[in-house]
Amino acid sequence: MYKWFKLYLLFSLVLQSACNGNNANDQPAPQLSDAELVDKVLAEGLNYPWELVLGPDNNIWMTERGGRVSRIDPETGAVTEVATIKEVEARGEGGLLGMALHPNFDANPEVFLVYNYNRSGTYTEKVVKYRYNGTSLVNPVVLVDNIAAANIHNGSRLLITPDLKLFITTGDAASPASAQNTAALNGKILRINLDGSIPTDNPISGNPVWSFGHRNAQGLVLVGTTLYSSEHGPSQDDEINLIQKGRNHGWPNVNGFCDADERAFCEENKVVEPLKSYTPTIAVSGMDYYNHDQIPQWKHSLLVATLKDNTLYQFKLSDDGNEITETNEFYRSKYGRLRDVLVAPNGKVYVATSNGSNDKVIEISRGN
């Protein structure tokens, strides 16, 4: 009996070891050590840069609010002008804003821009598609027009998804009520096809609105199939949002999370609460997603540039991306106001300042 008992114990230990994966092939991957961060000025002498996009030529494409589109060589920092959009009218926060390049740029060298201009005496925003001929932008085609503009709250970021849909953030243009009106283009995230037509699977038939109830979203990034935005609050409640198709994000009836006096509106209108809210505001702007081994401590994180707070924020995401689990701050007040952040495929990060005097693009890389 004792012999059989010993065999039973031995069998149990072997089985437990197998279930726990206690063999060399099942050991977890070694934890990567945190990287030392090294930052340097790549380019300077700029005037309110707004958007940074990595082009297929491995250059950083950049917009400046006054109307200039340029390419920056990431090796030398040399800035080459591609175009100056003469129609752009920079007024207050308005001017030349977001930019996106066609994902298959070699076959379709299309550049998408959103900017403010004077439309017969009315300050207006529009989205225009250009063609890049190798040296400059030509053949403009207007995709969306007659978006109300103002000295404040114009948005606007552009993002093209792998299924070739163009997302556009618009501000409320100082008219908060428009954010709740799905017939208006302001205070929204819009979604169109690359020819300007409206996708058949949009939430409202024949309508470019994808989500509404936004005040002034100036950051937009796609992680897998999940869309995130950063949005300016008034004097409180800047937001980091997970955008949901057809849903109401609350503004102006709700700021940040659904507080007691906002609860009834939230329930009645199925308002989506933010992942994170900041009071006092830090003025969140451009954002990108980091998931590279070069800076292991930033993996699976949103990186967000802030204006008032003069800081680059890291928001670590949960495995499913539905929560922010950790927040870290970098470069507070070192470079002033920060407008946009770009993550390159090689793991380097580029940040644009927004000080209005000798603005810069900063390169952040691994130092050890």
UniProtKB/TrEMBL annotation:
One protein family per Pfam: GSDH
Keyword Signal: yes
Alphabetized InterPro entries for the sequence: 6-blade_b-propeller_TolB-like, Glc/Sorbosone_DH, Quinoprot_gluc/sorb_DH_b-prop
Coiled-coil annotated residue ranges, if any: none
Keyword terms, alphabetized: Signal
Ranges for domain Glucose/Sorbosone dehydrogenase: 46-357
Keyword Disulfide bond found: no
Range of residues in the leader sequence: 1-24
PANTHER family: HEDGEHOG-INTERACTING PROTEIN (PTHR19328), HIPL1 PROTEIN (PTHR19328:SF13)
Name of the molecule in the record: PQQ-dependent sugar dehydrogenase
